[in-house]
Amino acid sequence: MPLSLSILIVEDGAADRMLLATIVARQGHRVLTAGNGLEALALFEQERPQLVLMDALMPVMDGFEAARLIKQRAGDELVPIIFLTSLSEPRELVRCLDAGGDDFIAKPYDPVILQAKIQAMHRLRQLQATVLGQRDLIADHNRQLLDEQRAAKAIFDKVAHAGCLDAGNIRYRQSPQALFNGDVLLAAQAPAGQLFVLLGDFTGHGLPAAIGAMPLAETFYGMTAKGYAS
Q: What 8-state DSSP symbol labels residue 160?
């Protein structure tokens, strides 16, 4: 299936703008056009094109300023900007890149080179979309894990800490890095006054470990209440 993108062409010269629009449309892309940077900015806000072909030197607002503003408003989304330029001085070409340009193409336009650059920028967009998607999945997984750990701690605290861990002769430290990591510390006083302590490492982490440790805690407290030593 041919590649088809929404492409904004920003060029103050009517003839150049029409020529470039024809080349890009024939390559199968949807074309938007603007005559200066200010028009380009308004069209970007309205249409959110996927790629911008930007002339550097234009009236009202030049391509440098327009590129900076488009990049700001695009946020995390990668909207590649290819500068259209007849500039040849290295400083001016560097200025295109410093303004937010991702590449540039010299006038007059070679359709084959233009098509290759558009395809290259599209691959960058796909790569960035993949990276952002993976970032969001990792963030969601991390949030779910933290929620599960908080739930695990709340569940286990109601049972495991129903004993007498606050007794003066018991000292322990709870790590803040893992809300429930499977370590079990239980303490309870028997009817005859003895203090029984159970220390173990329960299999697993998080909610499954907390739920699994609950029967152990209930058994320990039940046996201690009846005076059993083990």
A: H
